[in-house]
Design goal:
The chain is an alpha+beta fold. The chain has nine helices and four strands; from the N terminus they run βαβαββααααααα. The chain has a four-stranded mixed β-sheet, covered by helices on one side. The radius of gyration is 18 Å and the shape is globular.
Length: 231
């Protein structure tokens, strides 16, 4: 059994999709990031970065194994099940390259676009333009990578695709029309049609925020610094 500490965000979807794709038994434990659950000591013991998602894997030798950071979780689950990762050294190298590309480029850029679009529209034109262009650039990188390939690593769907896909799913709400990127558009739709992907994105749908954040949510989401990182 895997305890899955989750809130419905693109980073969370990466792991919920992988759990569904692998058919692993898991228990979803909601961590309400707007109400500050991520700063509770019991969660910090699992995820010292105060962020979703995190897991505790009970199906291991010895003590239950906590894993934080979505990329690390994907690698752990892929190695645990022997699924969705290449079996050869060159393929594994490429998988890690594209996984780290997502966690260092596509995800952060899309996340910043999302912040300004959803929480500060029109307030910081330079920042909005800066991150929108970087997100557009990352989509261009994906477009070039998918030339002649069904998925990021070739013919086989992998955790590299699972990592990037949620940040492309939300392209339109972030102001990006994928008509500029036909290969990315095709890839996005092919993955969206997978039943496990649909189940992963639907997980915790009722928890999604309706309307703008209140004062407490804004404080917990946007006003933390190094002095508050420990709870």
């Amino acid at each position: 059994m895997i305890d899955f500490y989750y809130w419905p965000t693109p980073n969370g979807w990466k792991v919920s999709i992988m759990l569904e794709e692998c058919g692993l038994p898991y228990r979803m434990i909601p961590v309400n990031i707007g109400r500050g659950d991520q700063f509770r000591p019991e969660f910090l013991a699992i995820s010292p970065n105060n962020r979703m998602p995190a897991i505790v894997d009970h199906d291991v030798d010895g003590e239950p194994l906590p894993v934080f950071e979505s990329g690390a979780i994907l690698v752990h689950l892929a190695e645990k099940t022997g699924r969705f990762l290449p079996g050869d050294g060159r393929g594994r190298k490429e998988m890690l390259e594209w996984l780290f590309w997502q966690v260092g480029n596509l995800g952060p850029m899309a996340g910043q676009v999302s912040h300004f679009v959803n929480y500060a529209p029109g307030e910081h034109p330079y920042a909005e333009q800066r991150y929108a262009k970087e997100y557009h650039r990352c989509l261009g990188v994906l477009e070039r990578r998918l030339e002649g390939r069904a998925y990021l690593l070739g013919d086989d769907y992998s955790i590299a695709d699972m990592a990037s896909w949620p940040w492309v799913l939300i392209a339109r709400p972030l102001g990006q029309d994928l008509d500029d990127f036909p290969r990315v558009k095709r890839w996005r739709q092919a993955i969206k049609e997978r039943p496990a992907v649909q189940a992963g994105v639907d997980l915790g749908r009722d928890f999604r925020r309706q309307g703008p954040p209140d004062e407490e949510e804004r404080r917990n989401l946007f006003e933390q610094d190094g002095r508050s990182a420990g709870g």
